[in-house]
């Protein structure tokens, strides 16, 4: 691990100022510290923001939910409002990491975490995300766990967060604090696809920090859930996953929110699936037909073509689970 300075801040103004001077924010540290040990990340200055007042879960005036960036994964998963209003979020969190890590890791850090691509974490391998312009070893290497959607010639790494998939499905907004005040960014625009600049992963301005994630109020009743498919049952990242939320009234699907994980360079919203569902009555045939659109635009690599069919089956299964007993 390379030498670094450490600063603890107790108010957001001091944090933003330190961030603008090149400091890297740290709270739970469950991702950044690992990357520093592996010398993948070499920050010169760490800014500890764990004492900032960003650790509450609140219901918004319109009936949505705001989850502070410093709420731990365990706290968010167990919160009664999260569990009752948006169970997909609780389920995604509970299927993430280990109990020990969930007690430390924060919501803000979770959505900011970097890829688990083995080539990114191997400092001897070519990786445009770690070293722009060096190449992408994963494209011609062993790429079984890599992305089939949203890839570019410069990067095929997946985003590892489970809860980010639920946030994408539910069309959350990220609240950011910076020198110019607070701004809100749609979740779909916050995490960036790699294109030609895979080292740019979030739509953050210099010194900005994540303050909260807000889930908008959605029509009631709303049923939601998260399904994760992985190589082993515990402490493993997704091969595919699906977050589904459905509003059914009068026996007809009025709104559908669907996103997939483990298959995209960012959590992958599935608008074609959603559009196929809205206005229809729930049936097994409908779930199957809608799920066939889940892999539209997929570009499988040498070792991950199986993800195309696995994604369709995962989405179909979760549509049936969430909507099958309306």
UniProtKB/TrEMBL annotation:
Say which domain of life the source belongs to. Answer: Bacteria
Outline the extent of the FAD-binding PCMH-type domain.
Answer: 1-220
**Which InterPro entries does UniProt cross-reference here?**
CO_DH_flav_C, CO_DH_flav_C_dom_sf, Diverse_Substr_Oxidored, FAD-bd_PCMH, FAD-bd_PCMH-like_sf, FAD-bd_PCMH_sub1, FAD-bd_PCMH_sub2, Mopterin_DH_FAD-bd
Q: Which residues form the signal peptide?
A: none
Q: SMART domains in the record, alphabetically?
A: CO_deh_flav_C (SM01092)
**Per its UniProt record, what Pfam families does this chain match?**
CO_deh_flav_C, FAD_binding_5
* The entry's keywords: Oxidoreductase
Q: Which residues cross the membrane?
A: none
Q: Which PANTHER family match?
A: OXIDOREDUCTASE, XANTHINE DEHYDROGENASE SUBUNIT C-RELATED
By what name is this protein known? FAD binding domain-containing protein
């Amino acid at each position: 691990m390379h030498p670094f300075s450490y600063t603890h801040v107790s108010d957001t103004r001091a944090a933003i100022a330190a961030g603008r001077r090149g400091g890297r924010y740290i709270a739970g540290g469950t991702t950044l510290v690992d990357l520093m040990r592996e010398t993948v990340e070499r920050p010169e200055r760490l800014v500890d923001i764990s004492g900032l007042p960003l650790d509450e879960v609140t219901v918004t005036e319109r009936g949505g939910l705001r989850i502070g960036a410093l709420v731990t994964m365990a706290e968010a998963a167990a919160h009664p409002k999260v569990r009752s209003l948006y169970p997909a979020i609780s389920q995604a969190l509970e299927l993430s990491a280990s109990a020990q890590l969930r007690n430390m890791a924060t919501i803000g850090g979770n959505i900011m975490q970097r890829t688990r691509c083995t080539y990114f974490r191997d400092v001897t391998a070519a990786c445009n995300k770690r070293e722009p312009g060096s190449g992408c070893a994963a494209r011609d290497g062993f790429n079984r766990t890599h992305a089939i959607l949203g890839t570019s010639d410069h990067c095929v790494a997946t985003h590892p967060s489970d809860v980010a998939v639920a946030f994408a499905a539910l069309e959350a907004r990220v609240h950011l604090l910076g020198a110019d005040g607070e701004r809100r960014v749609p979740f779909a625009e916050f995490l960036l696809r790699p294109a030609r600049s895979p080292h740019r992963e979030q739509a953050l301005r210099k010194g900005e920090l994540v303050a909260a994630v807000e889930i908008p109020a959605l029509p009631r009743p709303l049923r939601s859930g998260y399904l994760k498919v992985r190589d082993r049952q515990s402490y493993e990242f997704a091969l595919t996953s699906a977050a589904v939320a459905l509003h059914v009234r009068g026996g007809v699907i009025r709104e559908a929110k669907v996103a997939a994980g483990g298959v995209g360079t960012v959590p992958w919203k599935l608008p074609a699936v959603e559009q196929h569902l809205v206005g229809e009555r729930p049936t097994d045939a409908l779930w199957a037909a809608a799920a066939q659109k889940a892999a539209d635009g997929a570009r499988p690599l040498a070792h991950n073509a199986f993800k195309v069919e696995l994604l369709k089956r995962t989405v179909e299964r979760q549509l049936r689970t969430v909507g099958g007993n309306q």
